[in-house]
Amino acid sequence: ECHTVFGYQPNQFRKQSKLENRSFPIKTATACQLKWNWSTIFLTKETTASCHRTNHHSFDAETFDFHNTPSKVKDRERMLQGHWPERGCDYCRAIEKAGGQSDRMTNLDLPGMHAPVELERDPAATHVTPRILEVYFDNTCNLKCLYCGPHFSSLWDAENIQHGQSAFAKSSNMQRNKSKMFDWLKNNREQLTNFNILGGEPLYQKELAECLDFFQAHPAPELKLQIFSNLNAKLSYVQHVVERVQDLIERDCLRAFEVTASLDCWGASAEYVRYPLQLETWQKNFEYLLSRPDITLIIGSTITPLTIHTLAELIEKVNQWNQVRPIYHYQNSVNSPSYMFIDIFGNIFQEQFARAIDLKPSDTPEQRQSRDYLIGIAKQSASAGPNPAQIAKLFHFLNTIDSRRNLDWRRIYPWLVDEFGKYGLLN
């Protein structure tokens, strides 16, 4: 699963927004800008959310009102009263309780954010128009990351089917849902500041080209287009997409282009976690994007027990690339499965976190924010004792993965052999 981030980096080649910057006016102790500003829609299941960490829920696909569902409105009402939503915001609540920097806190005062226009008239409005729309068109993907699944990856779905599991059940109204999404976009694009395309993998989905066709026919000169990609596509196609988007920007059909490149760590562990990732392909594509100063460039890393040991190596690479031009690097931890949580082994990763945090630069506000966020994940990792039940689930999961994919976790993660041995799992 790819995750969203708002990493706004200075970019002298990017057109500045002409929209008036309306700051988020709600200042209660639990208020989250994303609940008002951001909507995600999953066309495969006709569900929506207003944060990648909250529960997905159904919306009325006929009216296509995905942003003001009863669930979202109720969450906004509770936040106006200073209460946490009844469900779905456990991650931020736990991070803040541990003294860390949560997604909620991070997104309250980000530069470049624009509060919904309805809040200018009524600061307590709960029915609003989103500023950020992100769309999961389909699950077509060329990777099957360990913490992902068939909902976001067609390769995961194919592997599950091969081993006797049921196929991922998509909505029977996929084409209708896509058509309604484009109709909504046609009517509301001038209210949006960000349009994010996720997957699956956008570089393997026909909908990316359809979106570029749409904006050519229906210009949105204040809109930033962002894709979330694993960058394991042919370089020639990456170049084609970049040139097509740049042409749209020059013709005032879009304002800016941002690419979030997903990579969790470095070396063999990166290829194991995001199998069948080819790190050489990723690096070639990334360094092409790095050579294009007209693209805002982000690296997104998911922290799990399987990625923390070589996170520092990735940060060293990020620091090298930052010598070419500024890029943004952010980290998050998984929502699921629970056996991928960073804290299941207890407080055993102090050395790895310390090394990674020490390498994180802190010269700019964005860098300090990213460093603080990693510090928060480190605190999260040390917030609970070992969880033997979840450790056992991870052990059995890795054995299953190795059997399915002809891999060898013991070779990639020798430290795990010792840890699993402590719990009698190797007997």
Describe this structure as you would to a colleague.
The protein has 427 residues and is of the alpha/beta class. The chain is 40% helix and 11% strand. It has helices at residues 33-37, 70-80, 90-97, 103-106, 118-121, 154-162, 174-188, 206-217, 235-250, 268-273, 279-290, 311-321, 350-359, 365-381, 388-405, 409-412, 414-422; strands spanning 38-42, 47-49, 57-58, 132-136, 194-198, 224-229, 256-262, 295-303, 328-333. The protein has a 9-stranded mixed beta sheet with strand order 3-2-1-4-5-6-7-8-9. Helix 9 packs parallel to helix 11 and helix 12 (311-321) packs parallel to helix 13. The longest helix is centred in the last third of the chain and has 18 residues, at 388-405. 45% of the residues are buried.
The structure class reads: alpha/beta
Using the CA coordinates, give the radius of gyration.
21 Å
What's the helix count? 17
Low-confidence blocks of residues: 1-13
Helix content: 40-55%
Shape: globular
Report the major sheet.
9 strands, mixed
- Which sequence of strands runs across the widest sheet? 3-2-1-4-5-6-7-8-9
Percent of residues in beta strands: 5-15%
Number of strands: 9
In round numbers, the mean pLDDT is 93
Termini gap = 34 Å
Report the order of strands and helices: HEEEHHHHEHHEHEHEHHEHEHHHHH
Outline the fold blueprint.
Elements: H1 33-37, E1 38-42, E2 47-49, E3 57-58, H2 70-80, H3 90-97, H4 103-106, H5 118-121, E4 132-136, H6 154-162, H7 174-188, E5 194-198, H8 206-217, E6 224-229, H9 235-250, E7 256-262, H10 268-273, H11 279-290, E8 295-303, H12 311-321, E9 328-333, H13 350-359, H14 365-381, H15 388-405, H16 409-412, H17 414-422
Parallel strand pairs: 1-4, 4-5, 5-6, 6-7, 7-8, 8-9
Antiparallel strand pairs: 1-2, 2-3
Helix pairs in contact: 8-9, 9-11, 12-13
